[in-house]
Amino acid sequence: MRASLFFVRVALFWGIPLLLPGCIEPYMPAAISSPQSYLVVDGCINSQGVTTINLSRTYDIVTQTPPPVETKATVAIEQEDGPHYPVNESTTKGTYTSPNLTLNTAKNYRLFIRTGAGQEYASAYVPVKTTPPIDNVAWRATDAGLNIYVNTHDDTKASQYYRWEYEETWEIKPPYSPIVEYKNRQIQDITTFFPATCWGNNQSTAIQISNTTRLTQDVVSDFLICSYPTTSERLRSKYSILIKQHAQTQEEYQYWELLKKNTENIGTLFDPQPAQLTGNVRCLSNETELAMGFVGAHSLEKKRIFISRMDLPQKWLIQSGYESCVPPDTIFLTKPFPPPPPAVTLQSYFGNPNYLPIYPVYDQMGAIIGYTAQSRDCIDCRTRGTALRPSFWQ
Amino acid sequence: MKHLYSWFVFLLFLLASLTSNGQQAEKTISGNFSHVPFEQFASQLEAQTKLRFYFNPAAVDSLFITLQAQDVPVRTALERALQNTPFHFAIDDENRVFVTAGVTLEPSLPDSFFRSEREGNLANNARTTEKAPASAPGRSRYVREAEAKLYEIGSGSVRGGKVTLAGHIRELKSGEPVIGATIYSEAPSVGTSTDQFGYYSLTVPAGRYDLKIRGIGIKNTRRQVILQGDGKLEIEVEEDITPLKEVVIEAEKDKNVSGMQMGLEKLDIKTLRQVPTAFGETDILRVVLTLPGVKSVGEGSTGLNVRGGATDQNLILFNGTTIYNPSHLFGFFSAFNPDILQSVELYKSAIPAKYGGRLSSVLEIKTREGNKKKFSGSGGIGPLTSRITFEGPIIKDKSAFIISARTSYSDWILHRLSNNSFRQSAASFYDISANISHQLNEKNSLYLTGYLSADRFRLASDTTYQYRNQTASLKWQHNFNNKLYSVLTGAYSHYAYDITSEKNPVNASRLKYGIKQTSLQADFSYFPSSKHTVDFGVSSLVYNISPGSLTPNGENSLIAPDILAREQAVESAIYASDRIDFTQRLSLSLGLRYSLFNALGPRDVYQYTPGVSRTETSIMDTVRYGSGKVLATYHGPEYRMSLRYGLTDNSSVKASYNRTRQYIHQLSNTASVSPADIWKLSDANIRPQVGDQYSIGYYHNFRANTIEASVETYYKSLHDFVDYKSGATLILNHHIETDIVNAQGKAYGVEVLVKKLTGKINGWVSYTYSRSLVRVNAGTPADRINGGRYYPSNFDKPHDFTLIGNYRFSRRFSSSLNFTYSTGRPITLPLAKYYIANSLRVYYSDRNAYRVPDYYRADLALNIEGNHKVKKLAHSSWTLGVYNLTGRQNPYSVYFKSENGQIRGYKLSIFGRPIPTLTYNFKF
What we know:
By secondary structure, chain A is mainly beta. Chain A has helices spanning 2-19, 30-33, 250-263, 342-350, 376-379, and strands at 23-26, 39-43, 45-46, 48-49, 52-57, 74-79, 84-89, 95-97, 101-102, 108-114, 120-123, 126-129, 134-142, 145-153, 161-172, 180-183, 186-189, 198-203, 208-211, 219-229, 238-248, 281-283, 291-292, 297-298, 300-308, 329-332, 355-362, 368-375. In chain A, strand 10 (108-114) and strand 11 form a beta hairpin. The radius of gyration of chain A is 27 Å and the shape is globular. The longest helix of chain B is centred in the N-terminal third of the chain and has 15 residues, at 2-16. Chain B is globular and about 100 Å long. At the A-B interface, helix 1, strand 1, strand 5 and helix 3 of A face strand 50, strand 51, strand 55 and strand 56 of B. Strand 1 (23-26) of chain A pairs antiparallel with strand 56 of chain B.
């Protein structure tokens, strides 16, 4: 329904105005063009393992750059009336990791941050929750496609509020393996073959939360984590998903619930009223300075499954993702007539590093009259993933 | 025609002066005039003396005066000035000079006039003396005779006591009642006005009266009566055919100052027609929006925000039935055909006790009853719509009908667009109104009204959007006697929408919503004496709502049906009010309305953990109520008080206080009204809204009541109106209370209005400073908005300036100019973005912390009337208009879209260029 309502909106605002001399222009009020930059704290305290915290800054909504990271900060996990554990910046700028820790579940913890500029921030002290293990990750193939579910339970009824993140990996097999390459302004036999398999990777972006407060037992049964249509290219040969489960406090859950409502639907005209949402991180040295993010403390449970093409219904017309790449183009050296010198033709096509030759094309006499070719994206699967086989890959 | 007109004017003044005895003030004048135009001569004389000149400017345009005078008496000077010309003059004892061609007016009555014999004692059987000039053309013989006649009414048994005169004022040609006409005597000063049936009742000491009758759209007239006992006087008045200046003007000219009511804006169809609109068609809601204190969020929206109230706080009554969606085509048109309308009244404060159920205002739309004497019709053809009206008698002089229809044909424009998806779209609407009135006998009349408006859109052959209003009402008016009458009204109104989606057979669905309202109401008006006007009555209203259902559409659809349980409730009220005229200067109106609301089962009611934010997780229990069981009761008094004190004849102060209660809430989390908005009844979890308004105003009329000025200020507090939590889901929500918060509001402002409805230049200028603030401070911190502080509402536009001006070049050509300026409305801006959990998030400003750019717009229209022959087959007129003359791109909407990881802001203007329109109107 939401989709159709959205369509009405679109039509209302774009269609009916077209009857009239309406117009749409960019609109950027001054308040947006020069926003203040606030600290963003992304991550949570892992009570049984390595804590990873990403620090960045809010930035101008019109820019397209990656977010500015906050480097050279001093970060620590602080136990209320107890020891501090440093969280040091790793080799990745803005990412801070702790040693492998086991925190006392009877105590409260917080995250303390002193930025390079000297501002001090801290999250609120939160109790430690222990995440129950994932019972299983189930999947089912329906006529509509593949659904992946998670199941968990907590006999102590202490968890109740859950959040999940996931990381997907899948094999990518490009349709071409060129035997020639264009190097030094000429075609030669290829020296290093392009990888035949790559691994695509994706991290969840949607906020997945659920609670069991209305149930008599603390059981999450078949919570839908993600679903794919029958044609999804990720299912073409082999697919894997790693699910991470967080048990949360009620406050943390409400934060994520509101963040989900608040920022996942942006872009429609009839959006709900958005609200200001910051989290539980406060600036200690300057009350007016804001910070974004909610730092909870809990353990993390993970589970990985694999799904092969063979496991899925044969009738599914799974796409390769390379549909637009077939058939290849053919670059004729003999055309147009009279043909320009071959070097000129070759340079004019393959001078562009993102356009690659695949095979020579011969005439009936066996003479090379051209080459098949495609864009790099159709040939080199590293444009879509990594050629490094993940350590967990089976 | 011009002569006719000038004669009308002469006659008016002549009649107004009939009662006085001729005595001229012997003023002297000085001056040298050499071939000066007569108009200039007259104005110089007016400057030197207290004289007022009355003449037909067209008749004297070739009259030039050459005169040298030094302390010459006026009479002598005028004699000298006009000698050897065909012009004559006459001066009455109020220093009015009438200049006429050919005929000399006699401004005073012959002495014998008042020596009327006391003979017949039946009404309408009095001896009369003809005094109207035999040559006065244009006025019907009936009216001339009636005005000159002396009516003796009553048997004379109550000599010296109080008597009551009652009757109807009707239009002579069509027999339609004249609503809101005043009938009054100047000495002693008593008066009243007609109600919606044209009925009046006047209680005065027995004696002789010169009753004057004034009203919108009628020619002023008078009746002379000798009241000796209770009696009836039916008055027929002439319609004001051509929109000429003096006529409209005289109507209720001092009501601004002398009327009891404050915060009332009354528009008649003629005023409505003068205001240029985007589509060339008279649009009542657009005109209402130009009035001080009335705002909307955007120019394509007809949602009214009256004095800081929300769009659902207006009771829109169409002949007594409630209209839930008063707009067509997403708000670009209002859903009322202008041809059938008689008048529109908007009560912004001092809402009469008779009305209830909404917090901020009452917009009462009345239709005409139809011509009781002959068949006639009218219509109009515009670029997007056409309309037609027929009316006529069913039984001559007793019953009449009027039926009016309007339809759009915007499809052809859509089909011309190059974009394929628009070519597959369709947009259409129509509305039909019909009214039948029947007079059973002298004491009983029946009025039947039906109304249907429907909209249908198909957008890119995917989603079809339909909504409709259907209403009907039956009124029975019964006169018990001259002092007491009643109106029994049964009304039904139904609003429903239906959205069907067909793009994908699997997802094809149908979303429906409907509200039905059935009411029965008895209103009584009692006129015990000239000092008291008592109104009382009872009403009961049954709501039946289908709050939403989503069902599969077609065999292949996999949509799971989702149907919300019905809601039922009964809203009842009892009221009484008394208007007391203590003295000529001081009057007070006291009213009390007591309303009672019962939400009824069958229904499952969720109970929530107290002290915690209401969410699905805080539901403690579900209580099932059986059919007809009361699940929640709310009731309370609604006070209605107003006071008027006349400072001078030309100025007065009025004050009012009223409390209103509202038990039904519109849920819309869009800034403007959309057809998918739903109405929700109060129930165990949603309290009714309560509003209090205090207002005080100063009213002053200048230049013999031709210029009205007023300053009104108000303070309003609103309790428990609905606001939404962040990310509220309103459609198909089984526990809507979890997404709603009770908000408190306050609104205050000053409205300044200067209105001139006479002369070649007329119109009004208004300026409003107002604020409308909301606070959500209840509940848990998570539910609070902006930290529980006051924030501007969506329609908080502090400065608002409107000019509606008309200039009449001649009786056939007139032009109108609109100018509107207002502060831009508040919006919530995304201020910055950031990444959390691998995804882009947006940091928003405080709710409504910023504003869109200011709004201003100018429109121009030119009306060209056909010739003014009274008797011809069809009267026609052309309206040529340009909407948004300067082409300013006023933002209709400001929105943000996420595009390729960037969030971009856009400003959409709908009427971003000047829009010319041409409309042809006809009447036969």
